[in-house]
Amino acid sequence: MKKILIAPFVLLVRFYQLAISPYTPATCRYSPTCSQYTLEALKKHGLFKGGWLAIKRIFGCNPWGGKGYDPVP
Hints:
Radius of gyration: 12 Å
Distance between the termini: 22 Å
Number of strands: 2
Number of helices: 2
Shape: globular
Mean pLDDT: 91
Strand order of the largest sheet: 1-2
Order of helices and strands: HEHE
Structural class: mainly alpha
Largest sheet: 2 strands, parallel
Low-confidence stretches: none
Helix content: 55-70%
C-alpha cells in the first residue's frame, strides 16, 4: 500500500532528476542531494512523514540554511 501512495511522487522526483536537473546548475548544499533525500525519505518513511522530511530539507537548502552530510533519519 505504501508503494502505491508514494509512486506518483517518486515518478515526479525521477522526472526532475532526469529531465530538469541536468540542465540547471548544481546548487544543493547537502549530501545526498535534496532530490535523492526525498526519494530515500519517501521509500523509508512513507508519504506523510517522508514528505514532511523532504519539505523541511528543501526549505532548509538555502544560503542561510545548513550544509554538508545530512542522511535520512
